[in-house]
Specification:
mainly beta; twelve-stranded parallel sheet
Length: 196
């Protein structure tokens, strides 16, 4: 629980070049808050996150990126698997924000009710910019962005989606399910439905 006023608001930092041998497993992080990465901040590190739950984490001040997790740096190659994101908020990437040359593998996981409430909000569930992102066997649902990409938004990225369900996401401007700008995207065996 990251809501103790005397405690640091973010759950974990991975900023010391942690490798894939670093495993964080079975934690629930509740109520984290920071300008980037309300629950977890990753820079030039590659931890494996397994069976994690992220609830009500926020990045709504400062640069406001990645309510659940923020990932940056070309040396970052984290794996997120068997995890759940519920009701996380940011201006970019309500649940997950991936940027600056990072590589993300995201599998067997659910993003539910990611929110980007700002008028310029991008990527209610996930936002990727200048990143390599592979998502499979996962669900992005009930997410909302005030400007673009209710479910997900990818810009100048290489993205592969396989067996992904993107459903019941909403946006006030463009791309209720997935919004793509200058990205090389492969989508296989996936479903986009009930967009609003």
């Amino acid at each position: 629980n990251c809501t103790d006023p005397d405690a640091m608001k973010r759950g974990f930092n991975f900023i010391s070049g942690e490798s894939e041998d670093t495993i964080l497993e079975g934690f629930t992080i509740l109520g984290g808050e920071a300008s980037d990465g309300g629950c977890i901040f990753i820079r030039d590190s590659s931890p494996r996150l397994n069976q994690m739950v992220f609830i009500n984490c926020k990045a709504l001040s400062g640069s406001a990126r990645g309510g659940g997790i923020f990932i940056e740096g070309s040396a970052s190659k984290p794996v997120i698997e068997n995890s759940m994101f519920y009701y996380n908020q940011a201006n970019e990437g309500g649940a997950v924000h991936v940027t600056n040359g990072s590589t993300l593998e995201f599998s067997n996981s659910i993003i539910d009710l990611g929110i980007c409430p700002s008028g310029t909000g991008l990527g209610g569930g996930m936002f990727g910019q200048n990143a390599n992102i592979t998502i499979y066997d996962s669900i992005v649902r009930n997410s909302i962005s005030a400007f673009g990409g209710g479910g997900m938004l990818f810009q100048d990225s290489v993205v592969t989606l396989n067996r992904v369900e993107v459903s019941r996401n909403a946006v006030t401007n463009t791309g209720a399910g997935i919004n793509l700008f200058g990205s090389t995207t492969t989508i296989m065996n996936s479903r986009i439905s009930e967009v609003r």
